[in-house]
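Checklist before submission:
- one chain only
- standard amino acids only
- sequence pasted in full

Submission:
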Amino acid sequence: NSREGHFDYIEFPAQSAESFAAAQRFYKEVFGWSFHEWGAEYADTKDSGLTCGFSSAPDHRPAGTLAVLFTADLEGTRDRVIRGGGRIVKDIVTFPGGRRFEYIDPAGNRLGVWSDE
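Returned file contents:
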């Protein structure tokens, strides 16, 4: 898989419905991005060069800007992250279109890994 282990997505938090709407307006006006809305609390765009999304949903909002890697084998990758010294901070969750987990690497960076399977 040519996507395996590559950065595939960036997710940004929005702390409120107002900041969620304001972020979409900002990126539309400044960079010309269009967004696909997935309900009232999530929207993403492919116009940014690397697909990215904004979430104001409390149960899905990232702790901060979250770079997300792709893998076809989510459980296997989670096991390798742990063996390699990473710490799982959000175990595998399902969302429309896939599943993902979040971890902290040995340098203290929080990242995500997702799979569409």
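Reviewer check: The mean pLDDT is 94.
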